[in-house]
Here is the input.
Amino acid sequence: MSRAFSLLVITALLFTPAACGEKKTPDPAAIQGKNILSIVRAMSRSYEQKDLKSFMSDVTSRYPDREAFSKSLATVFAKYETIHFNIQYSKMLITVKEKNQIRVSFNWDGEWISKGLSQKDGGRVTLVLDAGSFKLIGMDGKNPFIPTQNKEKH
Here is the structure.
C-alpha cells in the first residue's frame, strides 16, 4: 500500500510544475501560419466536395476575372462525378510579401473522374492571399482547380 502511495506522490510531484507553468502566447507568425494552412485546407476540402459557394467564399472580390473563374469551377463540378485533390504540405513554402500579400507555394496533384474515365494532372502553384482576410487574390503557375484537357485514361 505504501508503495502505491509513494508512486502516486512521485507522479503528482512530476506533473505539478507542468500544470502550474506559465502559459506562452503563440508567436504571431505561428498564428498566421495556422490561418494560412486552414484556408488552404478549407479550399481543398470544398473543391473536392464540389461546394462552389464555400470555395468562392475564400476568394476575394478583387480576384482577377472572379466571375469567369467561378463559372469554370461550376463547369468542372458539373462535369466530374468525383474529384481527388492532394497538396504536398511538407514541401509548402509560405512567404509574406509587401503590400499585405502572402504567397503560398506548393506541389499538387489531382484526379477528376467521370463515367469511368480518369483524368490526372499536377504541378506547382503559388496562391496569393490577402494578409488581412487570408482570401485568395491571385495565382501564379498552373491553376490546380481547372484540369488540363485531353489527358483522360480508363
